[in-house]
């Protein structure tokens, strides 16, 4: 099966095999990782090592804390304004797609929220330009989504927001390319695309931001509490963190983030080239300058052939190509674990389908 699911997404086979091998006996403890206490030294080591691996892979400085939280990225949509949108401040958002729209809607429930730029009028098929943004002088933070999973758009470059914290949802492209973490005050990402299974959300937060959080925020929703307790305030998602640990080691073994970026670029180039060389038989949905390396969205020349494409693709073992209901059409999600060969198999199928029906 060629898995192109948008998330939860594919794992490397060797990672799944390691989980299988260790499931009944974690490192000679005689216990499964599902059965160990989160207060045990085994989990303490997993917790510490996973934070360390992430710090090394992304070059995160000692000014930041790495947290493992629950509730998915959707909980972060609410937590960010709950913690930082304090009295008299304004939350500033860049609305580049369905996910950033949802983040805006949550912030509105908490306090004053302004959209600085939106591409809704373009059906979110491009990312709004970040140059010349009028950031509110009383902005609590600026929030944006680096990769919009549904529309298949991605920011290549970011802006500096100076003293105003820049907060980014990197759920669908964290660890897929090199980034300079010091440009951001807070990064969050649901794990289930590039990092691990659903159930854990990674938060990378600049420590100086934590001191601004009011005491009135309930503990489970309070970044400061999770940071002080080293992500052990309550029972953490032990199995999910363990799997993130294995994924990070796999990334490290496969050239680190730089290696991932090179591979992801090759994969994306291959698919986009096939679309662009098809003379209109396939059409990319995102504007060229906003195209995502992670999620390629496209259509087939007419609805009937698109249905036939999907039917035959499924018959040939290609899974997860149906576009999200908000965007329709087709979507190829190719996170870190998706090998180049799998993308090549898909483009061979696309070429062949065009020969037969084009
Ligand atoms: N943000 C982005 C960019 C996403 O792609 C998703 C889910 O696909 C979410 C947020 C929501 O994540 P979760 O389902 O973990 O709440």
Topology:
Layout: E1 2-3, H1 13-22, H2 41-58, E2 64-69, H3 72-84, E3 90-95, H4 98-110, E4 113-118, E5 139-145, E6 147-148, E7 153-154, E8 166-169, E9 186-190, E10 201-206, H5 207-210, H6 223-228, H7 238-253, H8 256-276, E11 282-284, E12 295-300, H9 303-315, E13 318-319, E14 330-333, H10 340-357
Bound molecules: pyridoxal-5'-phosphate (PLP).
Pyridoxal-5'-phosphate (PLP) binds at residues 7, 72-74, 99, 145, 149, 169, 171-172, 190.
Protein name: Phosphoserine aminotransferase
Modified residues (N6-(pyridoxal phosphate)lysine): 193
Catalytic activity: 4-(phosphooxy)-L-threonine + 2-oxoglutarate = (R)-3-hydroxy-2-oxo-4-phosphooxybutanoate + L-glutamate; O-phospho-L-serine + 2-oxoglutarate = 3-phosphooxypyruvate + L-glutamate
């Amino acid at each position: 099966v060629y898995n192109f699911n948008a998330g939860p997404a594919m794992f490397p086979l060797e990672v799944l095999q390691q989980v299988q091998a260790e499931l009944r006996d974690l490192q000679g403890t005689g216990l499964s990782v599902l059965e160990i206490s989160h207060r045990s030294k085994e989990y303490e080591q997993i917790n510490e090592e996973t934070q360390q691996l992430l710090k090394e892979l992304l070059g995160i400085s000692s000014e930041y804390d790495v947290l493992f939280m629950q509730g998915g990225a959707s909980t972060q949509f609410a937590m960010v304004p709950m913690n930082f949108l304090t009295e008299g401040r304004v939350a500033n958002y860049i609305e580049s797609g369905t996910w950033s729209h949802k983040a805006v809607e949550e912030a509105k429930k908490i306090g004053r929220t302004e959209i600085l730029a939106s591409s809704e009028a373009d059906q979110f098929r491009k990312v709004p330009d970040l140059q010349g943004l009028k950031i509110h002088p009383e902005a609590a933070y600026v929030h944006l989504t680096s990769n919009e999973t549904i529309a298949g758009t991605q920011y290549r470059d970011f802006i500096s927001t100076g003293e105003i914290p820049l907060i980014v949802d990197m759920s669908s492209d964290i660890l897929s390319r090199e980034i300079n973490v010091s440009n951001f005050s807070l990064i969050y990402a649901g794990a289930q695309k590039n990092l691990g299974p659903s159930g854990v959300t990674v938060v990378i937060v600049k420590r100086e931001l934590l001191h601004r959080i009011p005491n009135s925020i309930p503990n489970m929703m309070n970044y400061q509490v999770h940071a002080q307790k080293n992500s052990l305030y309550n029972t953490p998602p032990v199995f999910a963190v363990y799997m993130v640990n294995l994924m990070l080691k796999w990334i490290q073994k496969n050239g680190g983030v730089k290696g991932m970026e090179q591979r992801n670029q090759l994969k994306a180039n291959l698919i986009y080239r096939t679309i662009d060389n098809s003379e209109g038989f396939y059409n990319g949905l995102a504007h060229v300058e906003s195209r995502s390396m992670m999620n390629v969205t496209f259509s087939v020349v007419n609805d009937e052939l698109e249905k036939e494409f999907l039917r035959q693709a499924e018959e040939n073992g290609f899974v997860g190509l149906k576009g999200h209901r908000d965007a329709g059409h087709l979507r190829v999600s190719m996170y870190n674990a998706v090998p180049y060969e799998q993308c090549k198999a898909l483009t061979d199928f696309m070429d062949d389908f065009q020969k037969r029906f084009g």
